[in-house]
Amino acid sequence: MTQISAKPMPASDAQVLQIANSEAWLTLKSAATEFQGLQAKDGSLSDEVALPRATELVDSIIASVHALKVHFEHDNEYLEQLVADLEKWSESGFDVPDFLDSLVQFQPQTQRIDGLIHLVLFPMYTQNGSTNRHLEAVLVQVMWPEFIAELESTSYTNALFVPLRFVDFTEGYNTNSAVLFPESVAIRETPSFTWGAIFQDREAARFRKVLQEAATITNLQLPDDAAELLSDQHLTEETFIMWDLIHDRTHMRGDLPFDPFMIKQRMPFFLYSLEELRCDLTAFRESMKINNDPNTDPKTAKMAKLVQYAVIFDRIFRFAITGSRVRNYDGLGGQLLFAWMHQHHVLHWTDTKLRIDWDQVPEVVAALGDAIDELYWKSIDRPKVAHWLAAYELVANTVTPNPASQWAKGPQALPLTAPLREITDQVMDDEFPLSMFYEALNKKMASVIESTKGMTGASEI
Fold first, then answer.
1. What does the alpha-carbon distance between residue 110 and residue 144 come to, in Å, rounded to a whole number?
2. In this structure, are strands 117-124 and 134-142 parallel, antiparallel, or unpaired?
3. What's the rounded Cα separation, in Å, for the pair 335 and 398?
4. pLDDT per residue over 364-378, tens digit each?
5. Contact 150, 174 (CB under 8 A)
6. Are 46 and 96 within 8 A, CB to CB?
7. Given this model, what pLDDT does residue 2 score?
8. 254-258 long-range contacts, Cβ below 8 Å, gap at least 24?
9. 84, 123, 252, 377 - which has most CB atoms within 10 Å?
10. pLDDT-based confidence at 93, cuts 50/70/90?
11. DSSP bridge pairs for 142
């Protein structure tokens, strides 16, 4: 394998444009897009009749990778193994793909250099997008501001976290997906995953568009510092990097149930709601501490305040009404935060105007985070079903359940001695329907939220 001989260097704006507009990248993107149309859901060739054309396309992709390698010397080992995996796949007649060898060579978390560019190519699915393990290609650029580097190296270590911006992508990312996770890649066995990437430019761009529209519709007067997010894409990107840095590390910290992720287990979806909201509210409370610390430098203190606004606005305006009503755990998290703030009298919907008492918000929002933390702390001593029931009670005490719900009738209405799957099956797809406020907001906001599909920060700066 070729060894990296020099420190990786960030790409200038001109270099990024040169790569994105190069014949090699455009040919690779076109070939991968056509190849997707020849693949079955599991990534294999759907019809052997297409083998000759599939071979031609992958040969073209390999040639493009070779042509592009000059721009990615820092990824030489990965790209060389990628070519080997593509050739091996082609020789197999395009069976179910296995790109484990190239995946383990791609280690972007070891090169968190602001402006560094990567070419990423794998058969994979895109979360919140396609569930097909099709060949996807993405040009990405690392975002690593100095204040984030300082936070990560001191109080908020998170060696797996890689913030990115889109440069260009194939169709699987022309969706709502804003993550790039190694577990989505087609591989023969599961290694220890060592990184997770989030596209902060997409998160920031769609947040700004949704917040602008929601504030207009609800007649919400934004605080001056929050309003700054609407006019500055770069500032909003940095806000989301700080939020996600703390959120991501929280999944494995605290007094947790044995498996907070509930990986490969079928659980009531409201448990996922509480886990994601717990991580967001931890980011909120940690940002409160940072902002209130007199020793915090002005830049970081400002970003910490903006994280608090972002958590609230993204949760109550975008999360709550994005996606279907089928086990929408992120949606429920947004509903819960909105209802909690309203019922604790810091959020008001009066005379068709939304008003928020910002001086009281930190204490109230932190209290919801504390309530979820207490649920988790107690869960360590509880049987699984008892934890489920306690979690349901926490949510149902604030967000009204579906009147047809069996769970809402209490434990006596559930088959508690049956297998866990039967208990889970009693949870309705829309166990906690939208309130009248959200039904009305959804009608006015649906087209705006839909328009954020495939969005990047490139047109928002």
1. 12
2. antiparallel
3. 9
4. 999 999 999 999 999
5. no
6. no
7. 41
8. 254/278, 254/282, 254/373, 254/376, 255/373, 255/376, 255/377, 255/380, 256/376, 257/376, 257/379, 257/380, 257/387
9. 123
10. very high
11. 164
- The two beta strands, 196-199 and 161-169, are parallel
In the chain, the amino acid numbered 352 is T
The answer to whether the beta carbons of residues 389 and 424 sit under 8 Å apart is no
Beta bridge partners of 137: 121
Closest to 303 in 3D by CA, of 369, 358, 226, 365:
226
Distance, in Å, from the CA atom of 74 to the CA atom of 250, rounded to the nearest integer, reads 30
Measured CA angle at 89 (ends 84, 90), to 5 deg: 100
Phi-psi region of 145 (alpha: psi -120 to 50; beta: other; left: phi over 0): beta
- Structure tokens given for 263: 């990986």
- Residue 8 near residue 113, CB atoms below 8 Å: yes
Three-state secondary-structure class, residue 314: helix
CB of 432 closer than 8 Å to CB of 395: yes
State the Cα–Cα distance between residues 460 and 230, nearest whole angstrom.
10
Nearest to residue 92, comparing CAs of 43, 27, 37?
Answer: 43
pTM above 0.85, yes or no: yes
The helix/strand/coil state of 400 is coil
State the virtual CA torsion across 85, 88, 93, 99 in degrees, nearest 10: -30
Q: How far apart are CA 378 and CA 357, in angstroms?
A: 32
**Helix or strand (DSSP H, E) at 354:** strand 353-356
As a whole number, mean pLDDT of residues 20-35 equals: 98
At position 331, the amino acid (one-letter code) is G
Decide: helix, strand or coil at residue 137. strand
Q: DSSP code of 411?
A: G
Q: Could you give the CA distance from residue 337 to residue 315 in angstroms, rounded to a whole number? A: 7
Q: Rounded CA gap, 330 and 319, in Å?
A: 6
Residue pair 139/180 in contact (Cβ under 8 Å)? The answer is no
Rounded CA-CA distance 360/356 in Å is 9
For the chain, the first-to-last Cα distance in angstroms comes to 39
Sequence length of the chain is 461
Q: Are strands 134-142 and 179-180 parallel, antiparallel or unpaired?
A: unpaired
Q: What is the DSSP letter of 456?
A: -
What percent of the chain lies above the pLDDT cut of 70? 96
Of the listed ranges 78-82, 151-155, 259-263, 293-297, the one predicted with least confidence? 259-263
- Confidence band, pLDDT 50/70/90 cuts, at residue 1: very low
- Phi and psi dihedrals of 383, rounded to 5? -65, 160
